[in-house]
Specification:
Layout lengths: L3 E8 L5 H14 L5 E8 L5 E3 L23 E4 L10 H9 L8 H8 L1 H10 L7 E5 L6 H8 L3 E5 L9 E3 L5 H9 L4 E6 L4 E9 L5 E3 L3 E4 L9 H5 L5 E3 L6 H17 L5 E8 L5 E7 L9 H4 L8 H20 L1
């Protein structure tokens, strides 16, 4: 049997470069070697492309190219996080190249990356979201008034970023200006969101080759203190946080979360995979936090850890994602 060549696209010219490299290592190590051969295709921090022998070879790689070498690649598997990778830009390049690729298309990727626009669409579809206000550098002077209206504590985050990069928990007005400046250093818009009391419960959605949407086991983030939040260090440091999979929550709550996860997936026109993050209050109130169209795939990441509990190994998960990419491409081309 001829093996399919899978181009693992990783790195990126953004603040989530290292997370992407970690995801790429994990994907390459877990591909089914009876079906696929993986080829690392890295994007360095300058935005230049390199076809490599290993993920680690990206560090110190020489002159790259403005466009990728995709010769003899059967399916692209982007494991890029953040801007210029998760936001529809690389997906558009792959569309122009006429190459099947894993994950959401251009529109869904761009929508989900823009938290403000995604929230408006999700609210219109009946998905409960977090009370939010938005400021730019030009309107940052309005932030204190808007924050007072939301009430403290609150979170300030870049509109288009991930892995909690640039996110701050703000307890009082004295902390607000620095948090806004940090968020605006990562994006042109800063979101202020009311802190939601309750547990973070995340669900993974997997689209099979026949189009069926499967939801993985719910995952609950167990905070070490009520004041803590799931920041970059907690996400990517071993032991940084405790995860409960499957989450010990009532069956009816699991069913409702799965229903809302599917609704969010279809509302944003996702394909292949997404991780949908919720907050669940002590009274059972559900609030959607965000939809992540290229969730982390490291050994510590949430998305891969949701599937063994429903009988899907990491290697099987990758195979299903690749199979879906091939079918989705054939359908789009027909």
């Amino acid at each position: 049997m001829t093996l399919k060549t899978i181009g693992i696209i990783f790195g990126g010219a953004n603040s989530e470069h290292e997370v992407s490299c970690a995801s790429a290592r994990h994907v390459l190590a877990n591909l089914d070697r009876d079906e696929f051969v993986g080829v690392p295709i890295g994007i360095d921090k300058r935005g230049l492309w390199h076809r490599l022998d290993s993920v680690d070879a990206l560090d110190g790689a020489g002159d790259g190219t403005r466009f990728p070498d995709l010769d003899a690649i059967d399916v692209a598997f982007p494991v890029l996080h953040g801007r210029f990778g998760e936001d529809g830009t690389v997906q558009g390049l792959l569309e122009i190249a006429g190459l099947p690729y894993v994950g959401c298309g251009v529109l869904a990727s761009a929508l989900a990356m823009d938290k403000q626009i995604a929230q408006r669409l999700l609210e219109a579809s009946g998905v409960p979201t977090i009370p939010t206000r938005v400021v730019t550098a030009a309107s940052a002077g309005e932030a204190p008034r808007l924050a007072d209206a939301l009430g403290y504590p609150l979170f300030v985050k870049p509109n288009r970023s991930g892995s909690s990069v640039g996110v701050s928990r703000v307890e009082s007005p004295a902390e607000l200006v620095a948090a806004i400046e940090l968020a605006l250093s990562h994006d042109g818009k800063a979101l202020m969101q009311k802190a939601v009391d309750g547990d973070e419960v995340d669900l993974g959605v997997l689209q099979l080759s026949n189009g069926e949407l499967v939801v993985g086991a719910p995952l609950r983030v167990i905070k070490k203190s009520p004041m803590a939040f799931f920041d970059y260090a907690a996400k990517y440091t071993p032991g940084g946080v405790e995860l409960e999979v499957p989450a010990r929550i009532p069956a009816e709550l699991t069913a409702r979360l799965a229903e809302l996860a599917r609704l969010a997936f279809t509302t944003l026109d996702c394909d292949g995979l997404a991780r949908v993050d919720f907050f669940v209050g002590d009274d059972g109130t559900i609030t959607l936090n965000e939809v992540n169209t290229l969730p982390g795939l490291t050994s510590l990441s949430h998305y891969p850890r949701m599937w063994p509990a429903v009988g899907i190994s990491y290697t099987e998960l990758l195979t299903k994602l690749i199979d879906r990419a091939v079918v989705a491409f054939a359908g789009a081309a027909s």
